[in-house]
Amino acid sequence: MSNISTIFAGVKTAVTASVGSGFAPLSHVADLEKNTFTGSEKRWGVIPAAATEYVGNTSANTIAQGFRLILTDGFVTSEYGDSAVVDKSVTLMGALEDVYKHIILTKAGAPGVVMFVGNFSVSEVLVWWERKIIVVEATFDVRSQTRLG
After folding, report:
1. DSSP labels for 116-141?
2. Which of 81, 86, 98, 129 has its CA 20 to 30 A from that of 52?
3. CA trace torsion 27, 31, 34, 37 (10° rounding)
4. Band of pLDDT at residue 41, cut at 50, 70 and 90
């Protein structure tokens, strides 16, 4: 199994361990708008992003593989303000942080190949008002090494 496959499986395990059974996997991670969110707004998804090779060691190949982590939840609108959106946004941001900490502590489930987890970055909260869905997304890198030869 390749490092990316092992790490991807470990990241998905970390997400399910962190957010628990209250969240279900997204049906469509690459194209979020295809999700129906019928019956379950609390969803998660992970997809590999760009990767960068670190040159310098002739006996090993070091790669920083990026990942996108997505969490969603629904909200109820109120004529008195958008506090539900703000509260759920804060909760989802906290959940992103919890997942990230779990990935760091477990070395993405692949401690034999993962050297470093870092470059955590959270994008601005996306609110789909017409669908009553909040989307938060984070990116991070997992640096791994493979011995050559």
Report:
1. EEEEEEEPPPEEETTTTEEEEEEEEE
2. 98
3. 50
4. very high
Give the pLDDT score at 94.
96
Domain assignments of the chain as residue spans, ordered by start: 3-26+41-147
- The amino acid at residue 77 is T
- The architecture (CATH level 2) of 3-26+41-147 comes to 2-Layer Sandwich (3.30)
Token output for 69: 């982590």
**Cα–Cα separations (whole angstroms), residue 28 to 8, 24, 45, 47, 63:** 16, 12, 8, 10, 27
